[in-house]
């Protein structure tokens, strides 16, 4: 095209097979205007990284982890308590059996 500075790139697809050719054409534009270069170091209007979301996620994960840990510890404590009760009941009944046997022998 006349009046335009065009460049054409020949590329192949799909990757590794390269059975299809694609022509990509681009137009050269003027260099960056001086006004845009002056703005390059200035404060951006774009939003910043949402650090609040990282903090919120960290607190949420920490709270969830502590809740899971507490729940597991409580379950373990209850099962140990129940096991001790069963053991105590079993040993009490064995003591009673031993007493009954000794009194029967007399």
UniProtKB/TrEMBL annotation:
List residues traversing the bilayer: 49-72
Q: Which SUPFAM superfamilies match?
A: Sortase (SSF63817)
Top-rank taxon of the source lineage equals Bacteria
Task: Give the matching InterPro entries.
Answer: Sortase_dom-sf (IPR023365)
Keyword Membrane in the entry? The reply is: yes
What Gene3D superfamilies does the annotation carry? Sortase (2.40.260.10)
Q: Where is this region: Disordered?
A: 83-106
Entry keywords, A to Z = Membrane, Transmembrane, Transmembrane helix
What name does this protein carry? Sortase
Q: Which organism is it from?
A: Bifidobacterium tsurumiense
């Amino acid at each position: 095209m006349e009046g335009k500075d065009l460049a054409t790139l020949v590329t192949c697809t799909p990757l590794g097979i390269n059975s299809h050719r694609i022509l990509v054409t681009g137009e050269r534009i003027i260099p960056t205007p001086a006004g845009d270069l002056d703005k390059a170091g200035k404060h951006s209007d774009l939003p910043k990284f949402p650090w609040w979301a990282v903090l919120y996620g960290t607190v949420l994960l920490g709270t969830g982890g502590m809740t899971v840990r507490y729940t597991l510890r409580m379950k373990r404590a209850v099962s140990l308590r129940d096991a001790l009760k069963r053991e105590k009941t079993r040993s009490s009944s064995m003591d009673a059996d031993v007493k009954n046997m000794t009194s029967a022998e007399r």
